[in-house]
Design a protein that fits this description.
By secondary structure, this protein is an alpha/beta fold. It has two domains: 112 residues, Alpha-Beta Complex (Aspartate Aminotransferase, domain 1); 242 residues, Type I PLP-dependent aspartate aminotransferase-like (Major domain) (Aspartate Aminotransferase, domain 2). It is 40% helix and 15% strand. It is built from 13 helices and 14 strands. The strands form four sheets. Strands 2-10-9-8-5-3-4 form a seven-stranded mixed sheet, sandwiched between helices. It has a three-stranded antiparallel sheet with strand order 11-14-13, with helices on one face. A two-stranded parallel ribbon has the order 1-12. β6 and β7 form a beta hairpin. α2 packs across α10, α5 runs parallel beside α6 and α12 packs across α13. The chain is globular and about 65 Å long.
């Protein structure tokens, strides 16, 4: 990796070179025994990461993570079904938009960017709406850096036989633990471009046995995203459509590296350490990272609060011109925040380099302020 040009964004991220090398290898046919063996291995590796029992299934799509979000709607619900979206930001709102596109009856508990949900409000809402067919939430909200308590919501829903708990863990998985059994989650959504150290291009949905049983009740239109097609093909270790063969091979190596070479607990701790380290360095040069309360912060990224006279657009552009990709804020806070990822194949040297570039840009743009 060129240490003078790199990504410090909350995804896509810097990829590990040994996994990128796999993408330039010859490909096998997707109906070959060679592919089937790796395909099955990846599905089982993902099951282990999310602690999904053998009665559940992992469906792999060649797509972005958003496709799995849409698939989680069109495969499980009927028009006018009552669902709840607990939204704490931009990607929670994406669930709202998808549910509305399929004419579901959407209830929204909306929270201010930088905050997590109110536990009493969520508990009271769910208990007073026994006909809910689904509850949607983000594991880690990439627009704010806030991590939601998944186990608490899962515990509220676990005895509701006809209600599915669906979690967008696209940025949260492998940065924070996800235990489908312990947290009572029915569907976990994720993609290749965040914690897995490989490029975007494949995404997956982890489905509990409860989700599989309730799938047949859906009457919503779907074709490429029809989970039934994938489940039928998976009976013979295949996919219904041509998959991203090379990325699936890279995913197998990435899962083995993260789970067996590094170890999941070490990997989780690594992200916390890097988030804390970058926050400390920013504090040393006079910038606040308290956009969210400490107990609600995720370890995917650091949110930098800019001073009132500063422009995230100008700073972002200058930093990029010096070889580092970060992200601006989102929504109404876009001009006042910067988001710096601490995931991907990076070292503390990259974080130190960012601090030097960031301070150089600030001094250049605002030396007279």
């Amino acid at each position: 990796m060129d240490k003078n040009q790199f990504i410090l964004a909350p995804g896509p991220t810097e990829c590990r070179q040994e996994f990128l090398n796999i993408l330039s290898n010859r490909i096998c046919h997707h109906r070959s025994y060679e592919f089937k063996e790796v395909f099955d291995k990846v599905r089982n590796q993902i099951k282990n990461i999310v602690n999904l029992n053998q009665e559940g299934e992992v469906i792999i799509l060649t797509s972005s993570g958003t496709a799995t979000m849409e698939a989680s709607v069109c495969n499980f619900f009927r028009k006018n079904d009552e669902v709840l979206v607990i939204s704490i930001g931009y990607f929670g709102n994406r669930f709202v938009d998808i549910c509305k596109a399929y004419d579901l009856h959407v209830h929204v508990l909306q929270y201010k960017l930088g905050e997590t949900y109110d536990k009493n409000e969520v508990k009271n809402f769910i208990s007073s709406h026994p006909d809910l067919k689904g509850v949607f939430i983000t594991h880690h909200e990439t627009s704010s850096g806030v991590k939601n308590d998944i186990a608490y919501v899962g515990n509220l829903i676990k005895n509701m036989d006809n209600c599915l708990f669906i979690v967008d863990s696209i940025s949260g998985l492998l940065v924070h633990p996800m235990d489908m059994e312990k947290y009572h989650v029915d569907c976990v959504l994720a993609g290749s471009q965040k914690g897995f150290l490989i490029p975007p291009g494949i995404a997956f949905a982890c489905l509990s046995s409860k989700a599989l049983k309730l799938m047949d009740r859906s009457d919503l239109p779907r074709f490429y995203l029809d989970f039934r097609k994938y489940l039928k093909s998976m009976e013979v270790s295949e996919t219904p459509f041509t998959p991203n063969i090379s990325l699936i091979f890279a995913m197998e190596k990435a899962c083995h590296y993260i789970c067996n070479t590094v170890g999941l607990e070490n990997y989780y701790n690594h992200h916390y350490e890097f988030r804390s380290y970058l926050e400390s360095r920013l504090k040393d040069i006079g910038f606040h990272t308290d956009f969210a309360q400490e107990e609600n912060k995720g370890n995917v990224m650091v949110v930098i609060k800019l001073k009132e006279f500063m422009s995230s657009t100008m700073i972002h552009r200058e930093i990029e011109s010096m070889g580092i990709n970060i992200a601006r804020g989102m929504g109404e806070n876009a001009e006042h925040l910067l988001r710096v990822g601490v995931i991907g194949d990076i070292t503390k040297e990259h974080l130190d380099k960012f601090i030097i570039v960031f301070k150089t840009v600030i001094d250049r743009l605002y030396s007279e302020v």
